[in-house]
Design brief:
With 244 residues, this protein is mostly beta strands. The protein has 2 domains: 72 residues, no CATH class; 151 residues, Jelly Rolls. Helices cover 7% and strands 43% of the residues. The chain is built from 2 helices and 21 strands. Strands 9, 11, 14, 16, 19 and 21 form a 6-stranded antiparallel beta sheet that branches. The protein has a 5-stranded antiparallel beta sheet with strand order 10-15-20-17-18, with no helix packed on it. It has a two-stranded antiparallel ribbon with strand order 1-2. 25% of the residues are buried.
Length: 244
């Protein structure tokens, strides 16, 4: 078992690796842009003796090994949450709250076709967006040859949750297709009343659509996905219910 105590050692990691190849990477911080010289050396990561390779390669910068945060968090069996309102990343519990992933919730009712997949339980284990961000938690709608379809998922919350958060983004496959200003949309309902409509989502958006909804006192919650185009996936990513 990969415990949190062992995880501390994992995070500290092997900091000294023989240098064989040097590349130049660019790092963005807010509006600032800085070029950094980092080292890639085919770094291998083992979890409980089993090699695990993240989607993005680890690298070394000034003697410190950098590993993708989501990869480390999932190796520690922790949730990762993103709060776009204050540009914060939460690993594990959100301060003052408890997070439940949508995939761990029981679906009360489900209406629609069978092309709605869980990311780690379908034809792909990761979902890479049109701007290169990768996700391992969430759902995607794969509708090759299908369009004009709708999916509705309903959850009984019994007033136990305070917020729902998620991001929505097109799959990277859209980068190889003609841009479309409406590949689909999502609507969210609380006790039968619409509380949020994303409106049409374009295939070439430059950042994910962020969703943060107030669910205080809500008994029944519904997610409605509307698909308007075929041959290109769209993802509901990091969907989580929060108890504060």
């Amino acid at each position: 078992m990969f415990s949190k105590e062992k995880g501390k050692g994992f995070l500290m990691g092997v900091l000294f690796v023989l240098i064989s190849m040097v590349f130049v990477s660019t790092v963005f911080a807010g509006n600032a842009k800085e070029s950094l010289e980092v080292i890639y050396n085919n770094i291998k990561i083992y979890v409980d003796g089993v090699e695990q390779q993240p989607e993005e390669d680890p690298f070394i910068y000034e003697g410190t090994t950098y590993v993708p945060l989501r990869f480390v968090s999932e190796a520690l069996d922790e949730n990762v949450s993103w709060d776009g309102s204050d540009q914060s990343i939460y690993i594990g519990d959100v301060p003052g709250g408890e997070v439940t992933r949508m995939k761990d919730m029981t679906t009360h009712t489900y209406e629609g076709d069978s092309w709605w997949y869980q990311i780690d339980n379908g034809s792909r284990e990761i979902f890479e967006t049109n701007i290169g961000e990768t996700y391992r938690n969430g759902y995607y709608w794969s509708t090759e040859g299908i369009q004009g379809k709708e999916i509705v998922k309903e959850y009984n919350l019994d007033g136990q949750y305070d917020n729902f958060t998620a991001v929505i983004a097109p799959h990277k496959d859209w980068n190889n297709r003609e841009a479309d200003d409406n590949i689909g949309s999502f609507r969210f309902y609380a006790d039968g009343e619409e509380i949020h409509d994303t409106g049409p989502i374009a295939s070439d958006i430059t950042e994910p659509v962020e969703v943060e909804l107030d669910l205080e006192g809500v008994l029944r919650f519904e997610v409605e996905a509307n698909r308007t185009r075929n041959n290109g996936d769209i993802g509901l990513l990091e969907p989580e219910f929060v108890q504060e």
